[in-house]
Amino acid sequence: MILKLEAEMNAGTDNVNRLSQSLEKLMLKLQEVDDACIELCKDISHQELSLIGYIGLMGEVIMREIAGHLETPLSTATWIVDKLVAKKYLKRYNSIEDRRIVKVGLTSKGQKTYELFRRLKISMGERMLQDLSLKDQSNLISLLEKVTKNLNNHVKI
Fold first, then answer.
1. What is the mean pLDDT of the chain?
2. For the residues 126-153, what does the mean pLDDT come to?
3. d(CA 32, CA 148)
4. What span, in angstroms and rounded, lies between the C-alpha atoms of 3 and 27?
5. How far is CA 82 from CA 7, 11, 87, 88, 89, in A?
6. Dihedral over Cα of 36, 71, 67, 121: its sign
7. Which of 44, 77, 102, 133 is disulfide-compatible with 67, CB 3.0–4.6 A?
8. Handedness of CA 118, 123, 127, 129 (dihedral sign)
């Protein structure tokens, strides 16, 4: 019985190590998408690209949502938005419903950058799934959703 438990523990450790190595390789590949977009734009950082991607996905957002997405204080989020407004990727405007609320959206330059980023991410996704059957694709996506949910349910390290 003890040998069986030790074998299971070793198999579990081996799986954790394999997972860790696979995730590291995957993260490096995913980083290539960001790097390619940043290189093409020449004037934005990874954090700024992340914000452009978020606003492109969500549409107009308020500063509190930006701070939450970037996981930064409101003052830092404001500073990042200020830089992207100056670079003409973002625009600020008052909400029609409540003039006290400032919303942030993409300019045409920001929209073009978002579309480029989205196309690069879609291309990466297609390459990731190309050799998998539809069933394997669905299983992979389901497992990744479960893993993400597990991570979101735990305290940050």
1. 89
2. 91
3. 21
4. 36
5. 56, 50, 9, 10, 10
6. positive
7. 77
8. positive
Q: For the chain, what's the residue count?
A: 157
Start-to-end Cα distance in the chain: 34
- pLDDT band at residue 41, thresholds of 50, 70 and 90? confident
What's the average model confidence in pLDDT over 130-148? 93
- Sketch out the chain's domains with CATH numbers: 2-129 (1.10.10.10)
H or E element, residue 93: strand 90-94
Residue 66 and residue 77 in contact, taking contact as beta carbons nearer than 8 Å: yes
Give residue-wise pLDDT tens across range 49-103. Answer: 999 999 999 999 999 999 999 999 999 999 999 999 999 999 999 888 888 888 9
